[in-house]
C-alpha cells in the first residue's frame, strides 16, 4: 500500500528526493513537468490509496480595515526587521495603536521609523527597562509583540515579566522550557507560539491529536525533513520542531540535527522550487516518511510565500490576549491553538 499525503509542488523537489534516496526501489515516482502537477508513487501488485491533505503555496490576502478602531496599544519589538514591519502594518490596518517607542538591538538604537504616518523610535539594550516601564505607565493596557532574534528570547521575556506587561512571543528559538517557567512564575499573560500562521497552526493541532491518539503508529518508519527559509532565519524552524515532536511520539526515530536546512538562494530556487520573488520571505516544509521495507511512504508538505499569514495571525493573538487580560482570565499562558479555539478571528 502506498499512502501519500501531498500538495502541488515543482519538479525541482525531485532532485531533493533523489539526493536523499527517497525514490524507493520498488516505486516509480513520476513527476509531471508542470509546477502544478501532482506526483504518485506506483507500487506493483499492491493496491494504492492516495489522500490529499496538505496546503498549496500560501499567500494571504491584504488585511481588511475594520469599520471601528480597536485602539489597543502595542509595542512591536524588532520592528526594524521584515517580520516586525509586517506586523506593524497589519496591526495598523486592524485599528491597533502602535506606541511611539520600540526595543531593538544596539545596532538599531536611535533609529526612527515611519509606519503610515506614525513614527516609532527604536531604543537599544541600555535603556530598555525604563523605556518599557514608561510605555506601560502611559498605556496601561499595552501589549508587547516580540519579533527579535532567538538569542534575545529569554532576556526579553524576563524583562516583560519583570515590568509586568503582557506579550506575544513570535520569535522562535531560545530556551523554551526556561521561557515558559519565567512566564509561569511571573503570572504575566502571554501568547507563545512557534508558528503564528493560523492555517499552519490548525495543521499542527491535527498532528498533535494524531500523536496523542495513535502513539507508535509510525514505529520503525524512516523520517526525513527538509525546511527552507529566507537566509536571515538563523535557527531551525519552530514549526518543524513541533511537527517532528509529533512524529517522534508516533514512533519515528529522528533527531533535530538531521533536519536539512536550506538557506542557499540558488538551492532554494533550483532544488526546493521557491519562487525567486519570495526568496526573502518564505517557509517551505516537507516531511517524508518511509516504511522499513520501502513499500509505504507518506509525505506532508506546507509552503508559505510572504509574511502576511504570520502578521495577520499575530494581530489575532494580540486581540485574543487583550481580551484575556481585560477579563482577568485564570489561565495566563496561551498558544495559537488557544487563539484558534476561541473562534473570534477576523
Record keyword descriptors for this entry.
346 residues; alpha/beta; Dihydrodipicolinate Reductase, domain 2; Rossmann fold; 6-stranded parallel beta sheet; 4-stranded mixed beta sheet; 20% strand; disordered N terminus
Structural features, described:
The structure is a single chain. The protein is α/β, with parallel strands linked by helices. It contains 10 helices and 17 strands. It has helices at 13-19, 82-93, 128-138, 153-163, 176-186, 198-213, 238-249, 265-272, 308-326, 336-342; strands at 5-6, 30-31, 39-40, 51-52, 73-77, 97-98, 101-103, 112-115, 118-123, 143-146, 167-169, 190-192, 222-229, 260-262, 282-290, 297-305, 333-334. The chain has a 6-stranded parallel beta sheet, sandwiched between helices. Strands 14-13-15-16 form a 4-stranded mixed beta sheet. The protein has a 3-stranded mixed beta sheet with strand order 7-9-8. The protein starts with a strand and ends with a helix. The model is unreliable at 1-11 and 23-69 (pLDDT under 50). It catalyses: (S)-2,3,4,5-tetrahydrodipicolinate + NAD(+) + H2O = (2S,4S)-4-hydroxy-2,3,4,5-tetrahydrodipicolinate + NADH + H(+); (S)-2,3,4,5-tetrahydrodipicolinate + NADP(+) + H2O = (2S,4S)-4-hydroxy-2,3,4,5-tetrahydrodipicolinate + NADPH + H(+).
Amino acid at each position: 500500500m502506498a499512502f501519500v499525503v501531498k500538495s502541488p509542488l515543482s519538479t525541482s523537489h525531485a532532485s531533493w528526493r533523489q539526493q536523499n534516496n527517497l525514490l524507493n526501489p520498488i516505486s516509480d515516482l513520476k513527476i509531471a513537468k508542470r509546477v502544478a502537477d501532482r506526483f504518485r508513487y506506483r507500487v506493483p501488485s499492491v493496491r494504492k490509496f492516495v489522500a490529499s491533505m496538505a496546503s498549496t503555496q500560501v499567500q494571504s490576502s491584504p488585511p481588511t480595515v475594520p469599520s471601528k478602531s480597536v485602539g489597543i496599544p502595542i509595542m512591536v519589538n524588532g520592528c526594524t526587521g521584515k517580520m516586525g514591519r509586517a506586523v506593524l502594518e497589519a496591526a495598523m490596518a486592524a485599528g491597533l495603536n502602535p506606541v511611539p517607542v520600540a526595543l531593538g538591538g544596539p545596532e538599531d538604537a536611535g533609529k526612527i521609523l515611519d509606519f503610515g504616518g506614525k513614527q516609532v523610535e527604536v531604543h537599544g539594550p541600555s535603556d530598555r527597562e525604563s523605556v518599557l516601564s514608561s510605555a506601560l505607565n502611559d498605556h496601561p493596557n499595552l501589549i508587547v509583540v516580540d519579533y527579535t532574534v532567538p538569542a534575545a528570547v529569554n532576556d526579553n521575556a524576563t524583562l516583560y515579566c519583570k515590568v509586568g506587561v503582557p506579550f506575544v512571543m513570535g520569535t522562535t528559538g531560545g530556551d523554551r522550557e526556561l521561557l515558559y517557567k519565567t512566564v509561569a512564575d511571573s503570572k504575566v499573560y502571554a501568547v507563545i507560539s512557534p508558528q503564528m500562521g493560523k492555517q499552519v497552526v490548525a495543521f499542527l493541532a491535527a498532528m498533535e491529536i494524531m500523536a496523542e491518539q495513535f502513539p507508535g503508529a509510525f514505529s520503525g518508519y524512516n523520517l526525513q525533513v527538509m525546511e527552507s527559509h529566507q537566509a536571515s532565519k538563523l535557527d531551525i524552524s519552530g514549526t518543524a520542531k513541533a511537527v517532528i515532536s509529533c512524529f517522534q511520539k508516533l514512533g519515528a526515530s529522528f533527531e533535530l540535527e538531521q533536519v536539512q536546512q536550506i538557506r542557499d538562494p540558488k538551492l532554494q530556487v533550483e532544488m526546493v522550487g521557491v519562487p525567486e520573488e519570495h526568496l526573502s520571505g518564505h517557509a517551505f516544509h516537507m516531511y517524508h516518511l518511509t516504511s522499513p521495507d520501502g513499500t509505504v511512504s507518506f509525505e506532508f508538505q506546507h509552503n508559505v510565500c510572504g509574511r502576511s499569514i504570520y502578521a495577520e495571525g499575530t494581530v489575532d493573538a494580540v486581540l485574543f490576549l487583550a481580551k484575556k487580560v481585560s477579563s482577568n482570565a485564570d489561565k495566563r499562558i496561551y498558544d495559537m491553538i488557544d487563539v484558534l479555539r476561541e473562534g473570534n478571528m477576523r
